Amino acid sequence: MSDYAKGLEGVVAGETQMSYINGQQGILEYVGIPIGELSSHSTFEETVFLLWNRRLPKRAELDAFTKDLRSRYQPPAPIIERLRGIPRDAQPMHVLRTLVSELALHDPDPNANDIPSAQSKSLTILAQAPAIVAAFDRVRRGLDPVRPDPSLSFAENFLTMLNDKRPTPTMARAFDICMILHADHGLNNSTFTARVIISTLSDVYSAMTGAIGSLRGPLHGGANEGVMHMLNEIPSLAEVEPYIMGKIQRKEKIMGFGHRVYKAKDPRATDLMTLAEKLANDTGNQDLYAKSSKIEKIMERELAAKGIFPNVDFYSATTYHCIGLKLDLFTPMFALSRLAGWSGHVIEQLSDNRLFRPTVKYTGPHDAPYVPIDRR
Length: 376
Ligand code: ACO
Hints:
The chain is an all-alpha fold.
């Protein structure tokens, strides 16, 4: 048997041309462009085009891509109707996972895996997932869903569907930046899940559904909600030090810190920190930002030597809170963006497929007797 790597740590299991990560130096690039350049100058739509086509679009190409995306914003009517029958206390990640799976039932050819079909299904899922999340949030509040508006960008459309009110340009841009920053990240757990599923030549819906299920775990995308719970649990700035030190002494994980790949500060956390500070000042949430900042300083003092730094989830919690999102929508926001990365990886996998089938080290007994049931 070849070397055993628990959790597949360090194992190279595929190839990608989308994101490059240097965990030691804290570098993330999409198709070679540093993430900070994209969050400063690009839009989510342009970033998705970049990831899926491995080049920046010309203006006409971006216009056509955006028009196509917007034309698909509205999910089939039965999908929105279904939301009315879902328990109001259901968790949005479970709702999103279920209804992305259900979109397959409205596709006349859900199994088509040729590249143009897979690209088209990916675009539809990316376009309609925001309406599913926003409509569920409204239905559970006893409100009617707001129809998507194809004249709006991905970010503006989502926030308008959620609040039945156009976001300010600052809020829309902040949300757009969050979408850019979360769009792709190498072979993380949920992306691996998507690639594993499509490698059986299953279908795009199954791959996206499985990836959403993976993302919601607290060790992965669910950590942004964990960060917010933690910030809410700390009553004041003065309590930050004893709270964090208590957790460190009890060897509990601090949500939003640590990463399988980064052993330096996650560059997305740097961008989100700046965004969180600005939004916190604009929305009167300075206390939240101050607590986050203090946690980061304590963690740096205590755990930087171990390579534990803030990850993408840490400052995204404050950012999403300032945008006005409810806590249980934080992880769905991650999913809305990461659908772009998952889809790109599914296309890459389909373009050069080999079934994922690792082996497992057997650690049980051998040659054991079969004992009849009344003698056990
Ligand atoms: N707080 C305190 N200590 C930590 C943390 C943390 N957040 N993360 C890691 N450590 C410590 C571990 O206790 C361990 O210490 P030890 O060597 O004394 O046993 C050491 O650092 C290595 O940690 P592992 O969990 O083995 O590292 P791994 O690479 O497997 O895990 C993970 C990475 C799962 C992200 C981990 O850092 C973690 O649980 N973080 C908190 C959850 C989180 O924020 N997840 C989001 C990750 S980013 C994303 O998915 C989008």
